[in-house]
Design goal:
- There is one protein chain.
- The protein is α+β, with helices and mostly antiparallel strands and 104 residues long.
- The chain is built from two helices and five strands; from the N terminus they run βαββαββ.
- The chain has helices spanning 17-33, 73-81; strands at 3-11, 37-53, 56-68, 85-93, 99-103.
- A five-stranded antiparallel β-sheet has the order 2-3-1-4-5.
Length: 104
């Protein structure tokens, strides 16, 4: 049974919009390459962080929405080794939209 997921990724604040667009396309491709159905990837904006992460005080927030019933290990691994990713959070929701689990 497929569940709805949201993946929030905080990217190092990049200089140009084209670089962020490339990162968003790469995120969409990464999720799709693992067999998950991506419904949307969007830029939530550049926001000030509550505390510095890797000496950064701001981050570009990107949200990816997708459906999946499989494993997310490869997505997590890829985000962990990407130096432009400050943090990420994967959230799984049930059919009613209630959060089932989050992998911080």
């Amino acid at each position: 049974m497929a569940h709805d997921h949201e993946l929030m990724v905080l990217y190092h604040p990049l200089g140009e919009e084209a670089e962020l667009s490339t990162k968003m396309d790469g995120l969409r491709s990464l999720i799709a390459s693992q067999g998950h159905a991506v419904s949307d990837v969007f830029h939530w904006g550049r926001r000030r962080l509550a505390y510095p992460i890797k000496r950064q005080f701001e981050a570009d927030y990107v949200i990816a929405e997708f459906s999946s019933d499989g494993d997310h290990a490869e997505i997590e691994r890829s985000l962990n080794i990407d130096e432009s990713v400050l943090r990420h959070l994967l959230i799984r929701r049930d059919s009613d939209g209630v959060v089932v689990s989050s992998d911080a």
